[in-house]
Amino acid sequence: MSHNFHQLITDEKVAYMFTNPVLFDVGDKETNKKITEALGDDFKSESAYLCTNATNNKVGWIHYWIEDNQFQYATVETEQCLPQFDGKLKKNLIGFYRYYKIKEETEMGRNKEYVIFEFWDSNHCEKYKFKGNLQGAGLTYMPEAYETFKHELEEVPFIEFKNNRNMISDLKKYRDLIDIYDKVMSGYANDLEDIQQLIYILENYGGEDLKEFLGELKRYKTVKTGTGADGRTNGGLKTLSIEIPVEARNSILEILKKQIYESGQALQQDSENFGNASGVALKFFYRKLELKAGLTQIEFEKGFNKLIRAIMKFLKVSDWKAKPIIQTWTRNMISNDLENAQIAMESKDIISDEAIIKNHPWVENPEEELKKLKAQKEEAQKRQQELFTNAGGFNDEHNKDDDTE
């Protein structure tokens, strides 16, 4: 019996970090708009998938390229990737190997399996094709399918996203605990299956066979036993049942479950004491998850900076290397809405409206929200002016007459 603790803990982390997309600001509204368009509608989905890959495999990878004069990118399965770094202290990516399987339909309508092997460096790519599959006994190289082409990206078009500084998978922290939990539960289930029926102990049974015994027990709810020489009954019927140490097993399962969530730095799923908690109490509840997410965010920020700079380079933005990139991350967490609203109201006229909107949990696109807010204020001023005029307020013609007099 297996339990999906790892999936629950991983989904929790991914949803906490990437339900709200990361926002980028390079100091120019027009460039920000073009970057958002280049990232496209799939950015949130790709970010979540990238985080899942990094959580499971220590590191995730994004591959980017130019196609039809459009900037394209996609998350690559970590199992397909073999990076090549130089030997310097600040390691640089100098080459990248990628292999993956494909299926092609033959003239007979059948699917044949092939393996594609690619090598990328800073100016070209080589592609090799093999007949067969990765699980087979061997692969057959197809020299006629060899391809090579140059690209103008001027760097290896793959970006690394580490799960943490030490390159450790989250599963490694609690895998042994889950194995023990599965083992205890499996043994528990086996014991329950073994003791579903009672064991009957018969002494001097007076019937013909056991089949007759079970028939009489079901039909008459009685059993006849043998008699001795004195005519008295000297037989008997007893039952034997196996008792399972339920309390001990429940105790060890609770301990293991708690330790799994502790080691995985996850939220306790059975907490019920946060119905009307303040913001500080809720943040304390999220403290372990926030620590884990924060370490992943540090590594992902470096990867996203490289991705945004690659987009700016494609867009031919001047000083794309030196431009500062501000990233805004919004956590998906339970919050006290009343408290957040009060903080926003009290921040009015202390900090800018733009800063308030950027940090507001309901806002996904601050620039679009600022435009809507500006239009809303202009509309309100227009209505106020109309009401003033209709109520007999002075208009421009009256002002002119007063000046003339």
Characteristics:
single chain, 405 residues, alpha+beta, 3-stranded antiparallel beta sheet, 12 helices
Return the average pLDDT rounded to an integer: 84
The SS-based structural class is alpha+beta
> How many beta strands in the DSSP annotation?
13
- Number of domain units: 3
Q: How is the biggest beta sheet arranged?
A: 6 strands, antiparallel
Task: Tell me the number of helical segments per DSSP (H or I, 4 or more residues long).
Answer: 12
Low-confidence stretches: none
Distance between the termini: 96 Å
Spell out the helices and strands N to C. HEHHEEEEEEEEEHEHEHHHEHHHH
Radius of gyration: 35 Å
Structure explained in plain terms:
With 405 residues, the chain is α+β, with helices and mostly antiparallel strands. It has three domains: 5-162, no CATH class; 172-278, no CATH class; 336-390, no CATH class. The chain has twelve helices and 13 strands. The protein has helices at residues 5-18, 29-39, 43-57, 171-194, 210-220, 246-263, 279-285, 287-314, 337-347, 353-358, 366-390, 396-404; strands at 23-25, 59-67, 70-76, 81-85, 93-105, 111-120, 124-131, 140-141, 147-150, 158-162, 199-203, 236-240, 326-328. The strands form four sheets. Strands 4, 5, 6, 7, 8 and 9 form a six-stranded antiparallel sheet that branches. A hairpin with a 3-residue loop joins strand 6 (111-120) and strand 7 (124-131). The radius of gyration is 35 Å and the shape is extended. The model has no long low-confidence stretch (mean pLDDT 84).
